[in-house]
Every structure is written in structure tokens, then in C-alpha cells.
Amino acid sequence: MIVEQGTPRDLFASARQEVTRALLHGAEVTVRARGRDHTPVILNTEGISHSFGRRRKRIALRTMTLTFEEGEVLGVLGRSGSGKSTFARIIAGLDTPSTGTVVREWADGTPTKVALIAQEPYSSFDPTLTLRDSLGAAVSGLPADTADERIRGAVARVGLPPELLDRIPARCLGGQLQRMSIARALLVDPRVLICDESTSALDSVAQRHILDLLLHLNETMDLALIVISHDLDVISYVSDRVAVFHEGEVVEDRPLTEFLAAPAHPYSRRLVALSAEPGSVADGR
Ligand SMILES: Nc1ncnc2c1ncn2[C@@H]1O[C@H](COP(=O)(O)OP(=O)(O)OP(=O)(O)O)[C@@H](O)[C@H]1O
Ligand SMILES: [Mg+2]
Fold this sequence. Notes:
By secondary structure, the protein is an alpha/beta fold. The protein is 35% helix and 22% strand. The protein has helices at 8-13, 18-26, 84-91, 131-138, 144-157, 174-186, 204-221, 232-238, 256-261, 266-276, and strands at 41-52, 58-69, 73-78, 99-103, 114-117, 192-196, 224-228, 241-246, 249-255. Helix 4 packs parallel to helix 6 (174-186).
């Protein structure tokens, strides 16, 4: 049903329905900007580059060097095609870079586990399997009762009732399924979680809940996050640090507050200026 309608100006100023107010509240811009101490480096890329196609002519990443510390939240911005997803897949170990190396370990050699969650939760689960079976596949090496305990624990961590495990994906809401993908990622006990446009398919309320969940996991488990988004509001809400990708290169890599106060690259300046305009679609594409 249409529960409320009016001009954008009237609705934004004085929504009468609770659902409208909740949606508007979910879309409010908040800058997190917490102070961070320096912590150990747990992952770095040493001059990685990547190309696609026959004779590797399409260059997706050019000699990229980035360092991640334990428990930090890195926001990644950049135009479509700037190499963000290519970077995410390489960091997660799903693709091998054409040149350079990714070092996934602490100074003492302990490996850093990395997990990736994708944009579209419906297509990241097998539609014919119950969620219990999908999650089970991630812990198939464990004895049945241990695996079951791990799955229940992960599902509780993301704030879902265990009954949901008996459903197939089509019987869940987008937000629930995105939580399930996070639960599945947690099963491998990652130290770094990469979220590639993981909330862009959700409404503002569901999106804010997922972002709050990610921040909660970051704070309680010291889980480092790499959040890739076209939405500067999402990046401002979660990040400690911002990296801007442009044509396969990192053109900015700075603490969030510095970035927002004085964006340096033309693409960054455009994004920050656009998001300051009320009602704008701050994407910069
Ligand atoms: N599997 C592939 N085969 C060939 N070219 C690819 C492949 N994946 C990516 N590319 C190319 O590599 C470049 C970087 O793509 P990538 O998907 O990393 O960009 P992105 O920043 O994630 O973009 P978006 O914001 O649209 O998700 C683009 O030119 C793209 O066309
Ligand atoms: Mg992408």
C-alpha cells in the first residue's frame, strides 16, 4: 500500500508515518571518525597489478601498494571500472595478481584469513539448498556436532533466529540474507572481511542495520573491514581511513576526517561536493 505521499520537501520535513521516518533516519549522514591507535599490520599488497584479456591488454590494477592494520576499517571509493572488485578478489585470494604479491600474515608469520561478501545476497547462495546446507558447506571438514555449533554461533552473532536456517534463500528478506552471507563469512574465522557493495541492494533501514552489525563485529571481534561503496554516506559512516581508486591506481589514502575536510583528487572533490547538496545522488559517475 502507499501509506504516505507528498512533495519531497514536505516528506523530508514532516513525515507522518513511522515507516517513512525510519527510512529517512536510515539515510541520515553520520561521520564516525573514531581515533585509532596504530596496531599491527596484518595484510599488505606489494606492487600488485592485474590485467585481463588476450595478451593482457586491459589493465585493471597498476602497481598498487596498500597496508592494513588489525581491526581497522578501510573505505574504498572509485568510479565504475576503477578496479575495486578486482582488488577485492585478489585480496581475498580468489584471483592471483598478474604481478606483485599479497602478504596475508602478521609479523610473526601467523596467517591472516580474509573473507569476501558480495553485493547480491540472492545470487551468492544456491537457490535449491536450505541456508543450513549452504552454511554447512563452509565447515564441511568439521565433525557434524562441532559444525552445527559453529553455524548456530555465527547466526546468533549476526542477530538472526536459528529457524531461518531451515529456509531456502527465496523465503528470506534481502537484509536477512545479507546477514546470512556475513554469518557464512564468519565461519572461516576471518581477520579481514571485505564487503563489495554489500548494502547497495538494500533499503536505507536494512542498510543501516547491516552497517551497524559490521561495526559491532569490528568492535567486538577486532575484525578489520574493507568496505567498497559508491555511496560516500556509507563510507563516512563506517570508515577510519579512505582509499580512492582511479583507473587502477590508489590516488588517495588518508584518514576519513582529513579526506572529508580536504579531498585532493578531482574525483574525490566532486564526490564530496555532490554529497553536500541535499537530495543529490552522490555517486560522481
Ligand atoms: N573478468 C573480467 N574480464 C575482463 N575484464 C574484466 C574482468 N573483470 C573486470 N574487468 C575489467 O577490469 C576493470 C576493473 O573492473 P572492476 O570490476 O574491478 O571495477 P570496479 O571498480 O569494481 O567497478 P564497479 O564500481 O562497477 O563495480 C574494468 O575495466 C573491467 O571491465
Ligand atoms: Mg565492482
